[in-house]
Design brief:
This is XRE family transcriptional regulator. The protein is mostly helical. It contains 21 helices and no strands. The longest helix is centred in the middle third of the chain and has 24 residues.
Amino acid sequence: MLPRRLLRDPVVVQALRDRNFHVVFAAAKAAGLSWNAMAAATGLKAERISLVARGEARITGIDTIERIADGLRIPGSMVGLAARSWESDAPVAPQPAREDESMHRRNLLRSALAAGLTAAPLTELADVLAKADNALAVTGPADLARLESATEQHSYGYAGRVPTDVLADLVADVTDVIPLLQRPQPAVTRVALTRIMGQLGGMTAVVLHDLGNQREAHAWFATAARSAEESGDRQLHAWILARKAMLPLNFGAPHAAAELAEQARHIAGPRATAAVTLAAAVSGRAYALAGRRDEAAAALRDADRLADMLPEAERADTWFGHCEQKHHVHLSHALTALGETDRARESQAHALALSAPTSTLTRTLLRLDAAACQHRDGHTLDACHAAAAALNGIPARYRTGLTHRRAVDLYRSIPANLRSRPTARALAEVLAA
């Protein structure tokens, strides 16, 4: 059992609230509780507890957190859980700490207000009012509805907005979800919140991927996948993994991409959904880039079959849907990689016809695919001219990340004896700018 005095220690109380068991285990050890004693109480291995205490491992699974709370007799509310079954007979430990903190704050306010309503006390009052407003705003179902509405709005994609602006809005909404997840919530509410976090985190990762920030995108995809898994939404989990597969797909590791995409297909299951269709299409692209033609062809056939079977709701033109335009974007890249240039051009034409004029990123990628088709058909210098024109035709902020990488891949495939030609040099200059 965790020493009761630790449940009144403000540092430990905050660590429990944050589920930072590195601090909790280290404090318990310093208070005289051995690793073996904690292991016996919680059912965890002593070695793992030691690693967590040293900051070399983390505790995130809800089942594990429940075992720690029950084994060390930590009230559920202190770690964001419902009251534990044993709590009815247990004293409520953290109250003295809250009382001490409240009295300290009360005395500070009295002293400050006694000196007059100057800038500092007014700031303090405004801070308390803001926190009160925030608390009122986040406790009811209306706030959950607002977050769900905001998430749906984000799902419609860029809509002509600059990716960095979209990223800022997504991160702001993630910030609103975090304190809700840190509080005790009814089970139904927590499921909804973890699903929202998975959606927001996944979309944030997509934007980071498009901007070329691989490391950050990978981290956000990992958090989004954990959230989706906790929510129990297998289709969202599969969608996140399929989108995550596009990181190694677009940045030089197609075999790893294929493995991730196949994992997404397994999680999504056999039913025709947007997630499993996306995963099949990404598998086809990954196999094509890896030179695994038979597997690519099979995956693309599956993607076409699933796309034809999708219910109308799954065809939505959102990040979570799989509309016809999006399907042809994936086919364009896969067929270009396979050298099936006639079919690739058909998909490019369909996708461009279905893309809004404001879809700068998508339309540029399709034009770069078209340039790659020219190169594969033996018209390399025309391809260089087309690729340079595609990049020069968009604002500089769009000539980074994914578009830059796709154009670099084309340039690297140009034979050395052609790179001194003016059109090839022009492409190299655009890429170097």
